[in-house]
Design brief:
single chain; about 375 residues; alpha+beta; 3 domains; five-stranded mixed beta sheet; three-stranded antiparallel beta sheet; 10 strands
């Protein structure tokens, strides 16, 4: 299945993940039902009619099924009426996945990896005549191709001309199978630490030490209150240790967004993560009916931060028909802090109340337990 990623760069890891999930949907439903019956309280399970469980090749139709599954209570998760009705009036069902099927990063076999290791793949060809023809063709195309990425285009054309290169690449990856398995285990351990252990820690801390989970009367107030409560927790109450543990901060914005979304529970507002309303996704939309606010989280290390601050949220505001937006920027080092403050000053946004900086540095603050 991973070989689908080799065909075209338009086939991304999300597409492969969705395809794989649909292919094994029946297995995942059975797995979840068995686990739920063994380990989950009956009050937290419901029977759901699930569509498109498997394909009947005799009738050439998709077949539905009924399963007893864990569910998310819409009253406790802030799910919108639209989302509740999509499943059932008791909430949305949850599918569980065996950890040995999970991968944090891209698929082990993917086009980007093939392009990156093209030279290594060619060298692995034991047929000297074929290897010589491949090198000759590639060098010829490299001289002919014009544009921003001549090497990439030359590699692409060479792959089309010599499809045997795909088989050579697959053989190389087969030799590295143990590495892939070990990396997947490490990735699952990382996800468990960050998005289970750390999320539990921060939820307990936020409930105990802040007003993060109190409610505001409007979407912008709700979003801003939680952003500032999160900021105070990170900066003043050792919360930076959770998202920057032992000097190892979140490495990309997707992790920051997921982490922030997980701790945003227990609200009567509808919180949609990365809603795409025609102009690209924004990280969060907080709404109650027509009352909407947007929240975007960025890392100060983002190379396109300045451009993003200039244009992106304004486009999102127009697409979502709201003028309420909050931009949260997290920095981990003194250098990142200086960079983001310089950008804000340059754009004359340094006094903008809708931009909230979160200081997650581990080198400029004493422990809250020792501070006097």
């Amino acid at each position: 299945m991973e070989q689908i990623r080799l065909v075209d760069d338009g086939v991304g890891q999300d597409g492969v993940s969705d395809f794989a999930t649909n292919m094994i949907k029946g297995y995942l439903l059975e797995y979840t039902q068995e686990f739920a019956r063994r380990h989950i309280d009956p009050d937290l399970r419901r029977r759901f009619v699930v569509e498109r469980v498997r394909f009947d090749f005799n009738t050439e139709t998709w077949v539905s099924g009924t399963y007893e599954l864990p569910f998310l209570d819409p009253e406790k998760t802030g799910a919108s009426t639209r989302r509740r009705n999509r499943r059932t009036d008791v909430g949305e069902y949850v599918l569980l996945t065996p950890t040995d099927l999970l991968s944090r990063n891209d698929t082990f076999i993917n086009r980007e990896d093939l392009l990156r290791n093209f030279d290594k793949v060619v060298k692995s060809c034991e047929n000297e005549n074929l290897r010589a023809k491949i090198n000759e063709y590639f060098n010829k195309k490299l001289m002919e191709v014009e544009g921003e990425s001549p090497r990439l285009e030359a590699i692409t054309q060479t792959l089309w001309r010599f499809p045997d290169l795909y088989e050579l690449y697959l053989k190389l990856k087969e030799r590295e199978a143990q590495t892939a398995n070990r990396q997947n285990r490490d990735d699952v351990d990382y996800i468990t630490t960050v998005f289970v252990t750390r999320v539990r820690e921060i939820i307990n801390e936020l409930e105990r030490r802040t007003d993060f989970y109190s409610h505001s009367p409007d979407s912008h107030g709700e979003a801003l209150k939680r952003v500032w409560a999160f900021k105070r927790y990170v900066e003043d109450q050792d919360g930076y240790r959770v998202i920057n543990r032992r000097g190892k901060p979140f490495s990309d914005e997707m992790e920051v967004q997921l982490f922030f979304g997980l701790i945003w529970y227990g609200t009567t507002f509808d919180v949609n993560r990365e809603p795409n309303n025609g102009r690209g996704p924004v990280d969060f939309k907080v709404s109650y009916g027509r009352d909407k606010a947007l929240v975007e989280l960025k890392l100060a290390s983002n190379s396109k931060l300045e451009m993003n601050l200039q244009k992106q949220v304004a486009i999102y505001e127009k697409a979502n028909q709201t003028q309420k937006s909050i931009k949260v920027i997290i920095f981990y080092t003194e250098r990142q802090e200086a960079r983001v403050r310089d950008i804000l000053k340059k754009l004359e946004l340094d006094q903008d109340p809708s931009i909230v900086l979160v200081d997650a540095r581990d080198d400029n603050k004493p422990s809250a337990s020792k501070a006097k």
